[in-house]
Amino acid sequence: MKRLLVFFLIGPLILGSAASVLFGAPSGLGWAVGLPVAGLAVAFPGAAIDYALNGQRWQIVSVAACGCLVSILILHSWLAGIAGGLSAAFCSWLTNQSWQPEHHG
């Protein structure tokens, strides 16, 4: 459940932010339509690969490659691929962090 929340809530925000830095600030319509469509299109396969490769050595790299490829296919730009790869890699890294408090003692 944590993986889906990270990929579907945080992933599109990171993708949109990275894309706005790479492409320049989009119009209001670009954010309203493009962000959810592209973000969710990248989030679903990224979350699936992240789940399938959980704990594997190349997990984050594979998820980043998936995010990059899906973004390139959807948005037809290698800059979009960079944004999608960054978004997917960050989400994969975040899902693998322990959210439990550390007990010292």
Question: How does this structure look, described?
Answer:
The protein has 105 residues and is mainly alpha-helical. It has one domain (2-95). It contains 4 helices and no strands. The chain has helices at residues 2-23, 28-52, 59-75, 78-95. Helix 1 (2-23) packs across helix 2, helix 1 packs antiparallel against helix 4 (78-95) and helix 3 runs antiparallel to helix 4. The radius of gyration is 14 Å and the shape is globular. 36% of the residues are buried. The mean pLDDT is 81.
Looking at this protein, list some descriptive labels:
mainly alpha, globular, 105 residues, 0% strand
What is this entry, summarized?
This protein has 4 helices and no strands. The protein has 105 residues and is an all-alpha fold.
Strand share of the residues? under 5%
Number of strands: 0
Mean pLDDT: 81
| Total discrete domains | 1
What is the helix fraction of residues, given as a range?
over 70%
Unreliable residue runs: none
User: SSE order, as H and E?
Assistant: HHHH
C-alpha termini separation: 30 Å
By secondary-structure content and strand pairing, the structural class works out as: mainly alpha
Question: Biggest β-sheet, characterized?
Answer: none
Note the topology.
Layout: H1 2-23, H2 28-52, H3 59-75, H4 78-95
